[in-house]
């Protein structure tokens, strides 16, 4: 019996020309990337580019997608991550379909399917020099003793060249956490066994240590209210966008009834709500961004995968 496919939400971002780029998931593996130009005017135009995912999804589950825009605005990387097997990081089999798109011509210039942990399900970001710095979990080792439990994560990191995605300045290190009997929680991660190549990568990435490279340990979401999920943060506007639900859980959390569902714009300085947008209780997969363009500042929401709504923020 094949696994049930759970499609992720659409992904949306704003490119350097102020066009909206929306990646729309499709169950048959033929995804689409839509470019909306002039979306803040009365005469918008739409371009559509097909992105071929993994068509053998009968035994795979898509777990995440992302769009990454190069700093110069020339390229966009479309990544569709898949997993199969057990949930645990050691047993999980990861793969990814990565498509590199030239935004000027809005055409695909390369595509590859890979299980390389530096690419499949890794955390990556372009730095100020347009180097694509990536960190991926290679393996996890758990040691269980009579009074403790130790988890050791082995990471790979590198700079990836475009358009080939070849890894340069490779780096390896480990992150260790320990849970002692009677303790209230895990110890803070300790970095160990850092290879010599990490010094070169850290310098290239312009960070202080391997802990500051892109990765799960550098992700610091804002502390929203309980029941809220961060969708976007605009540092220039000092605003954040969150998807919030209120409700009650039943049968020890097996069932949850939603009494209120809203998208909220909040000030990152005062933590006060700037705008509240009511959403249907049944809507799943709502995503959105805060967009600042010449005509003003906006909230852009993508509902149910393809329905786009635009709300102007007061100045």
Short descriptors:
globular, 315 residues, 3% helix, single chain, five-stranded antiparallel sheet, 1 helix, four-stranded antiparallel sheet, mainly beta
What does this structure look like?
The chain is an all-beta fold and 315 residues long. The protein folds into 3 domains: 1-115, no CATH class; 130-219, no CATH class; 221-315, no CATH class. The protein is 3% helix and 53% strand. It has 1 helix and 20 strands. The protein has a 5-stranded antiparallel β-sheet. Strand 15 and strand 16 form a beta hairpin. The protein is globular and about 65 Å long.
Give the distance, in angstroms, between the N- and C-terminal Cα atoms.
55 Å
Instruction: Give the overall form.
Output: globular
Radius of gyration: 21 Å
Q: Order of strands across the widest beta sheet?
A: 9-10-11-12-13
Number of helices: 1
How would you summarize the topology of this molecule?
Blueprint: E1 11-14, E2 20-24, E3 30-37, E4 45-52, E5 61-69, E6 75-84, E7 93-102, E8 107-114, E9 123-126, E10 132-144, E11 148-160, E12 167-180, E13 190-192, H1 197-205, E14 228-234, E15 239-250, E16 255-267, E17 273-278, E18 287-293, E19 296-303, E20 307-312
Antiparallel strand pairs: 1-2, 2-3, 3-4, 5-6, 6-7, 7-8, 9-10, 10-11, 11-12, 12-13, 14-15, 15-16, 16-17, 18-19, 19-20
Task: Provide a brief overview of the structure.
The chain has 315 residues and is mainly β. The chain has 3 domains: 1-115, no CATH class; 130-219, no CATH class; 221-315, no CATH class. Helix content is 3%, strand content 53%.
């Amino acid at each position: 019996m094949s696994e049930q496919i759970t499609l992720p939400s659409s992904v949306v971002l704003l490119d350097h020309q102020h066009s909206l780029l929306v990646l729309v998931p499709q169950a048959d593996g033929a995804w689409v990337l839509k470019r909306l130009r002039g979306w803040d005017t009365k005469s918008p135009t739409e371009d559509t580019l097909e992105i071929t995912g993994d068509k053998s999804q009968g035994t795979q589950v898509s777990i995440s997608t992302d769009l990454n825009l190069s700093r110069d605005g020339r390229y966009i990387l479309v990544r569709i991550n898949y997993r199969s097997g057990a949930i645990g990081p050691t047993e999980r089999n990861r793969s990814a379909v990565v498509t590199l798109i030239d935004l000027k011509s809005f055409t695909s210039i390369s595509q590859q399917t890979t299980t390389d942990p530096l690419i499949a399900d890794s955390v990556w970001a372009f730095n100020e020099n347009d180097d694509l710095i990536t960190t991926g979990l290679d393996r996890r080792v758990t040691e269980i003793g009579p009074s403790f439990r130790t988890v050791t994560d082995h990471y790979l990191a590198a700079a990836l060249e475009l358009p080939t995605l070849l890894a340069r300045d490779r780096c390896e290190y480990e992150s260790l956490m320990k849970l002692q009997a009677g303790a209230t929680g895990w110890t803070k991660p300790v970095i160990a066994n850092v290879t010599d190549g990490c010094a070169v990568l850290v310098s290239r990435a312009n960070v202080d240590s391997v802990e500051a490279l892109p990765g799960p340990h550098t992700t610091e979401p804002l502390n929203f209210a309980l029941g809220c999920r961060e969708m976007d943060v605009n540092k220039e506007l000092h605003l954040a966008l969150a998807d919030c639900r209120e409700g009650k859980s039943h049968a020890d959390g097996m069932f949850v009834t939603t009494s209120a569902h809203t998208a909220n714009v909040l000030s990152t300085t005062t933590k006060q709500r700037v705008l509240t947008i009511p959403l249907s209780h049944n809507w799943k997969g709502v995503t959105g961004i805060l967009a600042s363009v010449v005509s003003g500042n906006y909230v852009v929401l993508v509902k149910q995968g393809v329905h786009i709504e635009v709300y102007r923020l007061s100045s």
